[in-house]
Amino acid sequence: MDDRDVAFAGAAQQARMLADGSATAPALLELYLERIARLDPELRSYRVILADTAREQAAAAQARLDAGERLPLLGVPIAIKDDVDVAGELTTYGSAAHGPARSADAEVVRRLRAAGAVILGKTNVPEMTLWSFAETVAFGATRNPWNTDYAPGGSSAGSAAAVAAGLAPMALGSDGMGSIRIPSTWCGLFGLKPQRDRVPVTPHDDAWNGLTVNGPIARTVEDAALFLDVTADESGFVAAAAKEPGRLRIALSAKVPLGVVTRVGAQQRAALDESAAVLRELGHQVVVRDPDYPQTAIAHALSRYFRGAYDDVQTLPRPERLEARTRNFARIGGLISDARMERIRASESQLTERVTSIYDDVDVVITPGTALGPSRIGAYQKRGAIPTLLLVAARVPFQALFNVTGQPAAVVPWGFDGNGIPTSIQLVGRPFDEATLLSLSAQIEKARPWAGRRPPVS
User: Where on the phi/psi map is residue 249: left (φ > 0), alpha (ψ -120 to 50), or beta?
Assistant: First the structure.
């Protein structure tokens, strides 16, 4: 492999290379540091590169490798989204309103370190992780490596841009309203929103009133499964990804949940239609059938989202430094009382039961990954909170509902739109059934490989 091939090999393959001695942890880290220095000034995927501490970690990992020690991610660099705590570093949430450096790792970072990962840096996000684009006064605009005129998605914007451009083999993302699946779609990656509580969010438990989960943004299904094996309370996800799924009953649905005004673009619809043919060729039973989306589902999600933003802003030491749009968004969330939020949370089980009733007849539901492609850089400048929300929601209507239900959902890369931006399909599984999603995604990956695709900025 040349250096570029190594950079795009993915976390699982790199772990094997480190274990068999065909690569060293310090050399692998330096490869990424060189690429970041050369390419990231254009992309701005990282807020900060932790070069000094990463070099120390890589050297220590190599000593352990030389001594014969084997851990799942020993020596593999990992990027961390900047809403997750890393000891000794700021957690800025994309804002100048942040507090001091954190004294301890978030639990998910602790588990990644325990698996041997080298923490490479912290990736850019929209202010308070609110949007599907990351363009902040504090840290600038993060760009899509497939077409730098466009956003990479969000809120895990920098994590997806970094993995897509070969500036990290894998990244930690979080997903409260689609924030792993949206940027994974538009950056041509495999992104998995795990079942709620599968991967710890401690010390930010119950973030956004239970909507938010942590999960992987990865080049391959195996990489994402490996991430789950080392961060979740259960294991066996790599084994599940390697297992044939058997003949599944799969429902295809392009229905937009009630409350969002949009249309599904031609390329996004084509991805869904083409997937039907591929899945049938793989031996699956495919039907067109829509989940039973309650009329109140989007309002339910938005209430938890707005109130979550309000709660997050209350923790900031310098909220006056927030951008006006963010302050207004949080102000709306403050209108949702504790009593109302309790009633909304109490209605979750009934809503979930209705949405998941489709799994009485099918094993997996597939939707378009997004309805449309990403926005151009600068498209939302000087727009207020509600106008921005309406425009964003029209692009990404298929995500938030499954944060409410808590069930796992993944996006599988598919084709490209007219702007050269990747498209995807979204696979939604039964509650607690990441195993089927991983197995089916790996089968699609074999039939339609995507990991070898390289964006223009790479």
Answer: beta
